[in-house]
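Sequence only, no structure available. Ideas?
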Amino acid sequence: MPKTHLRHFFLTLTAVFLFAPVQNWGQDQGIGPIPLFSYLQVLEERYDVKFSYVDEDIAPLTIKTAPGDSLEDILAWIQAHTQLKIQKLSDRYYTIAQNPMVDICARVLDNFERNTVAGATVKVLESEIALITDLDGSFSLTDIPKDAILEIRHVGFKTLFVRAKELIARPCTRLKLDEFYQELDEVIVHQFLTTGLTRLADGSIQMDTDDFGILPGLAEPDILQTVQALPGIKSIDETVSDINIRGGTNDQNLILWDGIKMYQSGHFFGLISAFNPYLTDKITLIKNGTSARYGDGVSGMLDMRTKNEIAPSFLGGAGINLIGGDFYAQVPLAHNLALQFSGRRSLTDFLETPTYGQFVERVFQDTRVNSDSEFYFYDFTGKLLYDIDPYHKLRISFININNRLDYRETNEDNFRSSQSILDQANLSFGGSWESQWTPRFSTFLHLYYTQYTLEAENTTANGEQNLFQNNEVLETAVKLHTQYQLMENLGWSNGYQLTETGIRNATNVSAPPFRSDIKGVLRTHALFSELEYASPNGRLNARGGGRLNYINDPGTFTTFDRYIVEPRGNVNYALGEHFHVEAQGEFKSQVTNQVVDLEQNFLGIEKRRWILSDNDSLPVTQSRQASLGFHYDHPKLFMGLEGFYKQVKGISTETQGFQNIDQFNGETGRYDVKGLEFLINKKTKDYSIWAGYTFTINDYNFPEIDPSQFPNNLDIRHTLTLAGTYTYQGLKLGVGLSYRSGRPFTQPDPENPINTDFFPSRINFQAPNSSRLPEYLRADASAIYKFALGTGTKASIGASILNFTNRRNVLNTYYRISDEGEIESIENLSLGITPNASFRVQF
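Reply:
I predicted one. C-alpha cells follow.
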C-alpha cells in the first residue's frame, strides 16, 4: 500500500474512532481541528455520500467539527471556514474544488495586542479596493482574489503586508501591527573596515562589540583604540585618553557611558581604555551633525551603551592578557529582571611583563621616576534591568574606574629619597525609565551622578616639603526626552536637560606655606527640539533642530548669566542605488575644559585638571562646524570623500598644552580647521583592505600673542593609514601601517636662548610652533583564533605587536633650563616594539 494511502487510512481510522462514540457528534465542539480529508470520509460513511476532489487541494487543510446536524449545514460550515467551493451533482455525489475568490475578515491590533487600531487603511494592491478599519479595528472583504496582497497602514505603525488566503479563517484573524519607532534608515556598509563597524545614514559610525572582527595591533576589542582607525581621528601622543577629533583636544569630546558623562577615559595614563567592551552593546561615534538632544562635546561625541535587553539565559566570559584580567556576566533573576556586572584589574603591581615594561618606559621616559614604582588599575560596572511591563523599562547603571601610582625617587649622590602618590578615580551612577505610552508617543527619563577625583601627593627627603594637589568634579543631571510620531515617516522629539557641574582645584604646600582652594559651580538648563524625516522610498533621510542653553552660577545668578542657541542639521540623500551625498552642520558649546600640567610641574608626570568656564578669563567654549560628503556604498566596495570646516572659540593657552613662553599666560583665542577625509575599503567575506587619508590645516588665532596666527599644537597636515584583515575559518589576521607628518613645536632662539633678566631665568623662544618634528610611522599586526571548548563554551587566543619595526618616533620635543643653567632638550618617544597576548572564554 502506498505511504499516502496508508497515512490516510490511519487518520481516517482515528477520526472514526473519535467520532463514533459521540451520540451528537456534529454538535461536539471539543474535538479538533482534524484533517479535512478525514472529516470528509466520516461524512461519506455517515450520510452515504461521495465527495470528488483533488488531494492536493485539501491535504493541508484542517477543520473543527461543525455545529449542525444536517449535511447541508455541515457543508456550509466547511465552505465558510475553508473558502472551498462545494457543488452538489446529485443526491449522493458532490465535488469540492479550490475557489479563486475568497471572503476574508480580520481584526487589527497593536503588536502587544493591547489596543485595537481603528482607522487603519486596508488596500488590496493592484486594485481599486480600499477601506478603513472600524472602531473595533475590524474589517471584512468579499470576493477577493485568494493570492491578492493587502497593505495595512496606520500612522505610528509599520506597514503590514499580508496575503488574502491567510485571512479566510473563522473567527476573524487577529493581525498585529508593529509600532513604528522613528529612526533614520541605516546606510549599512557591510564589513566597514572590519565586521562590527557600520556607517549609519546620519554619518555616525557604530561599533557592535558582539560582532567585532579584528584591527591591526589589537588582540581584543578596545573601544577607544578602534575609533582611531577612522579618518579624521587620531591620538597625537598614542593614548586613548587624548583622542583628537578633527583637530580638537580630548576635553572637547563628549564621552558617554550609558548616558553618563565620563571625566576619565583611560588607564595607565591613557594607554588603555577604561571601558570594558564585553558588556558594551553599541558604541556610536559622531564627528558632526549631532542630534539636538546632546550637549557638550564641541569636537565630537562617543556614546557607549551597555546591553539593554534581558537575555533568557546566563551569559558571561572572562579573559587575561599581559596587562590584566577581566570577567563579565549577565544573570537573569526572573523573566523580567536581570543583573549585569563586569570587572577588570591589572597584574602590573605583582607581575612585570614585556608589555608592562614598554608602557612604563613610554610613560616615565625623561622623568625623575626610577624603577622603584608600583602601579595598578581596576574598573567595575553593574547594571540592573527591570521590565515593569512591555511598555515600561527601568535601568540602573554603575561604573567605578581607579588608577593608583606609588613611586619613590632616590638621589644617587646623597641617597635621599622622596615619595609620591597619584590617585585617579571616577565613580558614577545612572538610572533611566523608558515608556511607550501610545503607539505614537514615548518618553525617556534619565538621571545620573558622576564624581571624578585626581589626588597627587609628594613628600620630599626628610619631610622638608609636602605638596598636595586635588582636582574634583561633581556633576548631577536629569534629562527628559519625548518622541512623538507625527506621521509614519516624520518624527518629532523634544526635551529638557538640567546639568549642575561643580569643580574644585586645591593646592597645599608646607614649605614655603601656600594654600589655594578654588571652587566653582555652573548650572545649565537646556531645551531642545528636533524633527526627523525618512522618505518612503528611503532616498532621503533628514534631521534638523536646535538646542537653547541657559547657563548661570547658582551661587550669585549674576556673575554668569548667558543664553546660547545651537542649531543642528543632518541630511543624507541617495543620488542612485549606491551613491549618497550628505551635508551636516552644528553649533555646540561646553563649560568644562582641562588645564594641562606638563613635565615641569609634578615630578615629570603629566596631569590634566578639569576647570570651569568663568565667562571672563576662560569663556564658554563654542564651536561651529559644517561638512559635505560623497559616498559610494557597494557590498564589496566603499569610497568616501568628505570636506569639513570647524571653528572653536573660547580656548586658552592653558588648555592647549603650550610648551613655550605662552604656556602660563592664559591668553584666550580660537582655532580654525579646514580638512578633507578620504576612505576606500575593498571587502569580501574573507578579507578587507582599506586606505584612509586626512588632510587638515589647523591654525590658532590669539589676538594677544605676536604673531596672532600660527599652527595649532595638533596641526597634523597629512595622515595616512593602510591596513588589511583576513579571515579563514576561526583565524583572523590583521596588519596595518600608520603615517603622519610631524607636529609643530617651538625651539629656543639660537641667537639669544636664555633671558637672565628674570629670576629664575627664562627661555627665549622663536615664533610659536615655527618648527616641526620628524614624520611618524608605525606598523602593527595582530592575530586571533577562535575555537569551541565543549558544548556552549567558546574560546579565543590572540596576539598583537605594536610598532613591530621598533621605529623611533618622536611624539614631542620641549625645552627646560637645567640646574646648571643650560637649556636641555627633552624628547618624548613613542612606544617601542610592544607585544601582547590574550586568552578568553565565553559561555
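DSSP finds six helices and 53 strands in the chain.
Hope that gets you unstuck.
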